[in-house]
Amino acid sequence: VGCDRSKNLVDICGDKNFEAFVCDALSVPIRSGSCDACISVAVIHHFSTAERRLATIRELARLLRPGGMALIYVWAMEQEYKNQKSKYLKEKNGSKTKEKKINTGTGQRPLTVQQPGSSSQDSACSDQLINGLKDGSCDARPVVAESKLPVHTNRTSFDSQDLLVPWHLKGCTKKKEESVDTVLVPPGSRESQELSPVFHRYYHVFCEGELEAACRSLDCVRVQKSYYDQGNWCVVLEKL
């Protein structure tokens, strides 16, 4: 059984006769202790606070029966590990240009969080905004207007753990055999001008040991394995 926040992705599963439903990873409508195994791939790095990321892992553990296993994958800050570049850095979409390291303050264009048609909850992660939400403040507009995150340049190393990644939706004229997923192209490039609209997705990329430490903070699970895989930090959990 699969679940996703995106109705469109769930509909694709339904078209292929797979069982899937729309839900939020913080509140999965499945009975506690009813799953033999759970997989969470490329989900937890989209939550904007440490508390929410931990709550997502706790919810994953809730679903497992005693002895059940969970596999978690999150995007890694370290895209070059043990002198090996990840596939993400290697795939330059055919570009032969030399790689450049981009500094957060200059090369990566800061983006004001609140934009027309965007949700402040999905994209905002500044400490100031988070503290305002914790205090129960309803009038977050002035705070959001000042909150800025770096916009990541595709296929480059990360210079910030909290960032926005531009996603350019493929146009309707693209060939059918191409992936139904979105395409990443550098902001300001000719390709980015040709593709629209552009959505900025929030990511928190994990440093080495961060995911494992979050998992170990829960009394209900045991970390069986922690490893690095092609630009991702991965953990295998067992429900106690």
TrEMBL record:
Residues 87-102 have a biased composition (Basic and acidic residues). The keyword Endoplasmic reticulum does not apply. GO terms for biological process: tRNA methylation; tRNA wobble uridine modification. Residues 1-72 form the Methyltransferase type domain. Keywords: Methyltransferase, Transferase. One of its GO terms (molecular function) is S-adenosylmethionine-dependent methyltransferase activity. GO terms for cellular component: cytoplasm; nucleus. Residues 87-125 are annotated as: Disordered. This is ALKB8 protein. It comes from Neodrepanis coruscans.
